Amino acid sequence: MSGPIVVRLPRRISKSRFLSMGAISWVYRITESIVVKYSRDIGAGEIERDNAIYDIFEQYTPCPYVIQSFYRTANANFLPFMLASLDTRLKRNQRREKHKVLQVLRIEERHLIERWAAELCAAVAWIESLGLVHGDLRPPNILFDEQDHLKLTDFDCVARIGDASSGNAPPWARLYPDPLTGKGRWGLYGPKTEQFAIGSLLYCMTRGHEPYGHPDDNPELDVVRLFKEGVFPRVYAESDELDRIINRCWTGYYESIKDLAEVATHLPGAKDMGTATTFSAEYCAQKRNECCQLVREGFLEIDDV
After folding, report:
1. Among 183, 188, 148, which residue's Cα sits nearest to residue 276?
2. Domains: count for the chain
3. What is the pTM of this model?
4. Domain limits at 181?
5. Is the bond preceding residue 268 a cis peptide, omega within 30 degrees?
6. For position 142, which CATH number holds?
7. Suppose 118 and one of 45, 71, 78, 264 were both cysteines; which one would form an S-S bond, judging by CB atoms 3.0 to 4.6 Å apart?
């Protein structure tokens, strides 16, 4: 079987404002309100899977905390522009040297973190209601709109509940010791895998760095082994409600993400989550027409060398 073909970027996209580059795509801002996510590897399959999940999502009433797609082609996805990702926010609040955090300069306001916690849990619970898991809950896949409401994005790793988990790097996934061999295994996708990642995301929000990523932490720590053995960074579950949620997520306390989301709605900051909105069908149709017009005009065409 032939491998993925690395593609050149269409000239008209390359003249737009570059936002980010991920494992599977480039992201460019092409108008005030629209970005395009363009596949870097034709044939790799990730963007096709990402697009297929939007096809599923659009069969249901949209979730205010899951990003909507305006228009999709075989190698591109046109999406609403968002101000920043959680990854960007965290790094903006840190003093860093390459990949190491030297100092946390500030932490976001408590009420905002509580709202984000409730919105994140609601987004993952909505996906759970469709019989699916996100499968890649990490800071780059958490976006924020102009009102600082959370929007979950990037669905190329979505899987069905009960499928074998392909895991993720720590601290977003945890190996579980096999009771017979003692070796680590990822287990099956479901509430346990999703809530573990949610716990680590909430830890990032409340501490300003990843678990075991504090400047004073030993960089030689074997985080994979620590998580496998159930050794987690210290939190104050007895006195702090967010920390209680983090601890319970790490230990797989919640039987479903729906149960977790219900708990998160009682956080004081969650009272503002109801102000988040989805785009109307009319607005989406207008933006879809804009995207279609761009494609008709050759926006995605590769110039001959």
Report:
1. 148
2. 2
3. 0.94
4. 84-275
5. no
6. 1.10.510.10
7. 264
